[in-house]
Fold this sequence. Notes:
Pathway: Cofactor biosynthesis; molybdopterin biosynthesis. Belongs to the MoeA family. It is an enzyme of class 2 (transferase). Catalyzes the insertion of molybdate into adenylated molybdopterin with the concomitant release of AMP. This protein is an alpha/beta fold. The protein has 4 domains: about 10-30 and about 195-350, Molybdenum Cofactor Biosythetic Enzyme, Chain A, CATH 3.40.980.10; about 30-50 and about 160-190, Molybdopterin biosynthesis moea protein, domain 2; about 55-155, Molybdopterin biosynthesis moeA protein, domain 3 (Beta Complex), CATH 2.170.190; about 355-430, Beta-clip (Beta Barrel), CATH 2.40.340. Helices cover about 20% and strands about 30% of the residues. It is built from 9 helices and 25 strands. The chain has helices at about 10-20, 35, 65-75, 175-185, 225-235, 250-260, 280-285, 330-345, 370-375, and strands at about 30, 45, 55-60, 60-65, 80-90, 105-110, 120-125, 140, 155, 165, 190, 195-200, 205, 220, 240-245, 265-270, 290-295, 300, 305-310, 320-325, 355-360, 380-390, 395-400, 415-420, 425-430. The chain is elongated. The relative contact order is 0.12. Bound molecules: ligand LQZAQKY5 and molybdate ion. Ligand LQZAQKY5 binds next to helix 5 and helix 8.
Amino acid sequence: MTGPDLHDHPTVADWSDLVRRTAVLVPRAAEVSPRLALGATLRDDVVSPRDLPAVPLSAMDGFAVHLADLEAATGPAGRTAVTLPVVADIPASRGGVAPLAPGSAARIMTGAPVPGGADVVVEVERTDADPHAEAPTTVTIAAGEGLRPGRHIRRPGEEVAAGTVLARPGDRVGPALVALAATLGIPALPVAEPPHVTVLVTGDELVAPDDPEADAPGAVRESNGAMLAAALTLLGAGVDVIRCPDDVAALTAELDAAAARSDLVLTSGGIGHGAYDVVKAALGPTGRGSSTFAHLRLRPGGPQGVGRVRVVGPDGQEAWTPVVHLPGTPVGALVGFHLFVRPLLAPGAAARPVRALVGRAPEPRPGPERPRAAARRPGMFVLPGRLGRADDGSLVVDVLDGRRLAPYGRADALVLADDAMPAPGQGVPVLPL
Ligand SMILES: Nc1nc2c(c(=O)[nH]1)N[C@H]1C(S)=C(S)[C@@H](COP(=O)(O)OP(=O)(O)OC[C@H]3O[C@@H](n4cnc5c(N)ncnc54)[C@H](O)[C@@H]3O)O[C@H]1N2
Ligand code: MOO
């Protein structure tokens, strides 16, 4: 068979492939002001509309002169200094500057436009002028070495020539690109509009954290909605969280409505092996059959699902919104999100594991946290990790001790171990959170 064997507990790699093929997000293009685009992903090249600098600018505080005047001074006569009248004082300010006649000098500040005719700027340190006083009436310049045409003058287009590609599709908009857009007068950047994700949380036992009934027997404070909304927000998505009852008709109605207004739908819970697994009942083989469910060779986060929801637009056009089904167990939902959903929203390096050496790791303990299922079916054992650096700068990860979600309060990485607790000194793949 070509796809993963879903009846034989697919591996994480096979399931990732299936999710990537099933849940394709089509980015919508938008032109957004650079500041609002911060953090967004570019959809197109950003091309400079103009030269930077636009005109020749001084790179030093000093004096603009004609190089020929200085060369004359250092000629066969052996003189090493020349005195020129100072005919202008040019600060970095708006407005044009008059050309400079041969045989004269203009005092000039860093960033100020170089007057026409001048082909060199001599830094003030090389002259007899007091840099903090008024412009002198004459200046004596120590001529000699290091003077050549264009010295200390920033040529037009030297930093950015018109037509230069400053950033490419897939690049994230950062503060430096915001600055380039500002300095080059680029009013808007071509980014992907933030995707909208709806999270449908199932479970009749779930109540809002501040519900007066939250401490009643059997009630569980809902946390997957908050966790997934936070994780999605960090990826730049817009998020809605909706709590659904464990009822097939109500769930499918919410799902259809969510699919119509979202780029991606996530569900939480209801995909286990029990009698009340509403998501599986609604969308699995005995329901609509539009989603695939499997128990992966992964712990925690073994139960997973993926599918598409049919949406008919106002014009009668049919479209499909991807849906990813995460398990209800909070740590299973967290692991499933980072392994399978994050790559859909942050493609490329941001969602790929890196390698680290294990620093500290707790003793493997017997009990429910042991990878029993995984021991029977070799697979991936995910653990909470905290990243650091060794003295030589290499990446080190400590595996945190604790059960289920609790140690993730301090975790900044998922340790993707092979079946068993890794030993200190062992190399492991880690997915930074
Ligand atoms: N017979 C078997 N039972 C289970 C298996 C199995 O292989 N055989 N796998 C277990 C694993 S692993 C997981 S994970 C769960 C997945 O089940 P569901 O996706 O149906 O999750 P629920 O039953 O809805 O909830 C499980 C657990 O998590 C709590 N929960 C659910 N949603 C939330 C939420 N939004 N916020 C906070 N807590 C939530 C819920 O109250 C349950 O305690 O199946 C196992 N069973
Ligand atoms: O896969 Mo479940 O998430 O181990 O608890």
